[in-house]
Write a structure and sequence with these properties.
There is one protein chain. With 218 residues, this protein is α+β, with helices and mostly antiparallel strands. The protein has twelve helices and four strands; from the N terminus they run H-H-E-H-H-E-E-H-H-H-H-H-E-H-H-H. It has a four-stranded mixed beta sheet with strand order 1-3-2-4. A hairpin with an 8-residue loop joins strand 2 and strand 3. The longest helix has 15 residues, at 4-18. The N and C termini lie far apart (44 Å).
């Protein structure tokens, strides 16, 4: 649980890196919220709030998740999307310079360049990372491929989390899976809060988390 001073620090970091993204301020202070509630609390135009949320997701500061909500007696439950601030991911932004220094010392210049790009611009597809090699006249894409593989094997870079995992209710673990598809519901046990469940459900399986493969690799 984040303390009051921890929340203030996180808000300061977000403001320093992205400007006054009040949507993140709202999530850090109030906890997980739907888009409608974020708009209501911030009193900002919907499109502006959506833009803020997209920026925060791009930089791994917010996680979306879907869950089933009971509506009322005799009414079918509905699926809603909520957003939660990733408090510890935000605090890690203070350590970006240290991460780069370690990679520079332990790996090589190309690895440092890839990591710096990811830290500055957030999530990238493999194709986007390799496209950065087009401006590098000395190495080219093959050098970047090898550098990226080094980063993944050393656990400095990992696959992105699922964009919107579905959290099955504890009383009906299989029913939401049938409604949203068997692969979309991931059982999570032994966690205390819905936010922790969302973070765990969004994480890739270990076999995929530190792997690199798609049609652009070969």
């Amino acid at each position: 649980m984040a303390t009051q001073y921890g929340v203030q620090l996180a808000i300061h970091l977000i403001s320093s890196h992205f400007g006054n993204l009040v949507a993140c301020d709202c999530l850090l202070r109030k906890g997980a919220l739907t888009l409608a509630n974020i708009i209501r609390f911030t009193e900002l135009p919907p499109q502006q709030v959506k833009s803020y949320i997209l920026v925060l997701i791009q930089h791994n500061c917010v996680q979306a998740y879907a869950m089933q909500q009971e509506v009322g007696f005799g009414e079918a439950p509905r699926v809603i999307t909520q957003y939660t601030a990733l408090f510890y991911n935000i605090l890690h932004r203070m350590r970006f310079a240290k991460f780069l220094a370690i990679v520079s010392e332990e790996l090589d210049k190309e690895c440092e360049e890839i990591l710096e790009g990811l830290l500055q611009h957030g999530r990238h597809t493999l194709e986007q990372i390799l496209d950065r090699a087009k401006s590098n006249q000395s190495g080219g894409k093959m050098l970047y491929k090898k550098a990226l593989l080094k980063l993944v094997r050393a656990c400095f870079v990992e696959r992105c989390t699922a964009p919107e995992p579905f959290l099955a209710s504890q009383s009906e673990e299989e029913t939401p899976a049938r409604k949203r598809g068997a692969k979309s519901a991931k059982p999570v046990e032994g966690l205390q809060t819905i936010e922790q469940c969302a973070i765990a459900a969004a994480a890739p399986m270990d076999a995929k988390r530190f792997s690199v493969y798609n049609e652009y690799w070969h």
